[in-house]
Structures
1.
Amino acid sequence: MSFIEGIKERAKEKNCRIVLPESYDPRVCEAARMISEEGLCRIILFSEDGKEFPDPGVTSLPGIEVVDYQHSPNLPKFAEQLYELRKHKGMTPEKAAEQVLDPMFFGTMMMYNDEADGMVAGAIHSTADTMRPALQIIKTAPGIHTVSSYIVEVVPDCELGDDGIFLFSDPAVVEFPTEDQLVDIAVASAKTFETLTGHEPIVALLSYSSKGSAKNERLQYIINAAARLKEDYPNLKTDGELQLDAAIVPSVAELKAKGSPAAGQANVLIFPDLNAGNIGYKLVQRLAKAEAYGPVMQGLKKPINDLSRGCFAEDIVGTVALTCLQV
């Protein structure tokens, strides 16, 4: 059984309700049809005045609920709740009433009221537009200081990582992580990898330098974070700073980081900033023809997950399955 098939089988057991607010995108409609046919979960789509779904038949499939959010009887309640949540930030009743007519905010308010378990969006919205209502309304889980994201990449015909499975973080949320945030991201990503795969996470903090091969003040926060991980989480296999080849290729690790507990075998790759993380995962997805699932968020009270605007229907289905496991 493939990685994603295993995730889907576990997701089916949870019978979750997942909102796909970008309901008129053809890829979203195709994904909703696939999810219905597989019995993966229940899907909530949004209808709008005067618009026809790219696949009109999708609305009558088993497990598909269509909500006319623009005329929902919940609009006044949602607007009042949003106003109360955000009035300390200058929200007005009028602005709240306008904002809940945005499908991204309406879907998030459904989750806030336990009318949905999760949401997946980003096929046509930016990460900022997808995550803004999540951070404003759902907020972080208790004890979590950093909301971050990860991508699961499944590389075909690859013996590196966990037989071709890698977790990349952070490709979508924390633009320039501090030393503290880098530690948080690494720990959260390790836990996520173990939860998803059942295998031991091996964590590499990536850089253009391996174990002091370059000297630069910008590298120091990576080196410090790596040292803190080793001290505070002695049972976690981790190392840094490491170049990508030293992190995942055993022969290169022997040359650049001999004796490292993580070099040459890493399956969790922590990137130094958002530029590197986003570029890295898209390179692997496109050039290696890898399956990419996410970005999936870590650290929210309830799961709202972001898609790449270049995603395929299959990517949406996989992200929905991962979202179900977070519920």
2.
Amino acid sequence: MSDRTRRAIAVIGGTGPAGTGLALRWARAGETVIIGSRDAARAEQTAEAIRKRAGANAQVSGMDNSAACAASDLLVLTVPFAGQAALLKQLKPAIRSGSVLIDATVPLAASVGGRASRTLGVWQGSAAQQTAELVPKGVTVAAAFQNVSAEVLNGDDDVDCDVIVCSNDPNATQVAMELAAKIAGARAIDGGKLENARIVEQITALLIGLNLRHKGHGGIRITGLPDSAYKMGLVTK
């Protein structure tokens, strides 16, 4: 991994399924991870659970979200869309200029029975574009990890899924792709500008519907591109 990503990864909202799963994968890959939460005690409890699963050498700690933002300039946002804007406004003073923020948020609407089956319209175009509007000046945003099953991330098998990264900043794209390549079995693909995140976010609702219908944990694979288009993940099998 490049020097730009040899630093702690602060997972904001890291006690939820997606945040916990990503943190577990990165801890297993030898990265230093900070779990952020509204409740510092809950964050530390989650960090302890991840340390037990990831091994004795795992470097995982827990903090409240503001402290996690202040402790690193590499942030991964894994919160429900309903609380995204309010949280970012709250955390704005703590987010360091020059930070890279990777947004995994999907604007899902719950249908009858509480099952998310469609995406909500977002004035800015996508959840990631909303984030880009709300973060402090000098913070770059990439969208990634929306299509990876949280249940799979929290398991032990390799992740059979491509991670499409969208950003207007080449460095943010590179950082997000390198993080994706730390996840065993995953491949990262440059998906172009941040505005393309709206398409990637919508795929999540499709995947949820397919997984409910067929009782699976499917992801996506993009085929037919040259090998140079993919940044390959770790292989554990």
3.
Amino acid sequence: MFQENVQILWNKKIGPSYYCIGLTCHEGYGMAKPGQFIMLRLPAKTAPFLRRPFSIHRIITTDDRATGIELLYKVVGDGTDKLSRCRQGDSADILGPLGNGFSVFDNYQRIAIVAGGIGVAPMLFLAIALQTKGVDLSKCTVFLGGNSTDDLLCRDDFNRLGIRTHVTTDDGSAGDQCFVTHPLEMALEKNRADIIYACGPMEMLKCVVGIAAKHKIPCQISIETIMACGMGACLGCAVEKKDDASIYMHACMDGPVFEADALKFN
């Protein structure tokens, strides 16, 4: 884990409320796992006091050495609004990489990746890690869902990697008009996956977990939750453990990636 003052390399608007920001980083980020995150704080004069969590979207490398990280984010409040106004050369303070990431296995080839909205943020990093591990990405499928076509991110990135994408939107402006879990289940009935990876809203994850259990497929999920410290001190990201209401885990330390059967979904 590294705490450092970093420089903003770029901050590009990629949609009506979506941005992709590049930051310099310690070369130790070359050991980061997909699903891990950083806690970011802007200079005190311009931003809220508390840090904000962001999944690592991609590792920037130069000569096989990590020189930066890329974050994908949506403007939803004061903190991300101020972040969107940052420019190349501005500074930020980051702490990371934090949390537990996705596990990448040698013997899993047919892989389903499910991403809802900004939940796609860690999934490009995951896809790149799978490719590095030797997985044939042509056997993998990304199920990408959003409220509208404006919320469908990274389609071109997945296509360049050779991963099939299946798109759904709530309003029918792109792909099928349905929840992203519908084509997932239809696909699994025809061709069983070796593992499912998912990130997105809790209701989507609850459905994905149910589908995985029905088909007896291993599944890992990355949950989205509010975090204040990222290190287990504030206890603000507590999640209830399945089958034991007396035990709580914390997304920042035990997650944000969990095995599908680890959490209780209320």
